[in-house]
């Protein structure tokens, strides 16, 4: 059991180290020895766990996307019991999601996706299935429950979830110039408030 746990931990260290190096160097410039050094393991250990550099890249991207997804799913938790002020809860959730969307790992993940997708067209599916697609599904589930409780009028929760995410990320990408401009927390809160205001205009209960 200890040996199995150690192998899992070592693999995770390799994947974390690989993502750090790929984010810093890009795929072409990254070397396996540098990844091994970053992970604190010997170079042959990297090959024992992941057979080649391309496999390592795919798994590192998938792991980074899954880690980001788990954090975003946790950010949705307030919607399970939003209390009397649904607007405030939606703004809190939106703000949390925006902060996660702009953290260093998420920005690096998007940069790598954009820069390497020509060489690795399959990573779009890998990242999407481990991230945005499942996040939207989880958001739709929360919105469906709120609709059943009479707090929203989202006849199509999947569509409503897509709209909510678009209202957050669309303005963010525009204001940050595709991640090249730093956005401070006050501006993230402003984007979240505007997104929720528009969302509730479309999907809020008829009595306001």
Report a brief summary of the structure.
The protein has 208 residues and is mostly helical. Helices cover 74% and strands 0% of the residues.
Topology:
Layout: H1 2-25, H2 32-39, H3 43-49, H4 53-75, H5 86-101, H6 104-116, H7 123-130, H8 132-148, H9 157-175, H10 185-203
Helix pairs in contact: 1-2, 1-4, 4-5, 4-6, 4-7, 5-9, 5-10, 8-9, 9-10
Description:
With 208 residues, the protein is mostly helical. It folds into 2 domains: 1-51, Arc Repressor Mutant, subunit A; 60-203, Tetracycline Repressor, domain 2, CATH 1.10.357.10. Helix content is 74%, strand content 0%. It has helices at 2-25, 32-39, 43-49, 53-75, 86-101, 104-116, 123-130, 132-148, 157-175, 185-203. α1 (2-25) crosses α2 and α4 runs antiparallel to α5 (86-101). The mean pLDDT is 91.
Which short descriptors sum up this protein?
about 210 residues, mainly alpha, Arc Repressor Mutant, subunit A, Tetracycline Repressor, domain 2, 2 domains, 10 helices
Strand content: under 5%
Q: CATH superfamily membership of the largest domain, which one? A: Tetracycline Repressor, domain 2
User: Radius of gyration over alpha carbons?
Assistant: 20 Å
| Broad shape | elongated
pLDDT averaged over residues: 91
| Overall domain count | 2
Reported by name, the CATH topology of the largest domain is: Tetracycline Repressor, domain 2
- Supply the number of helical segments: 10
What structural category do the secondary elements indicate? mainly alpha
Major beta sheet, specifics?
none
**How far is the first residue's CA from the last residue's CA?**
56 Å
Total beta strand runs = 0
Low-confidence stretches: none
Question: CATH class of the largest domain, anyone?
Answer: Mainly Alpha
Q: What order do the SSEs take from the amino end to the carboxyl end, as H and E?
A: HHHHHHHHHH
CATH architectural label of the largest domain: Orthogonal Bundle
Helicity range: over 70%
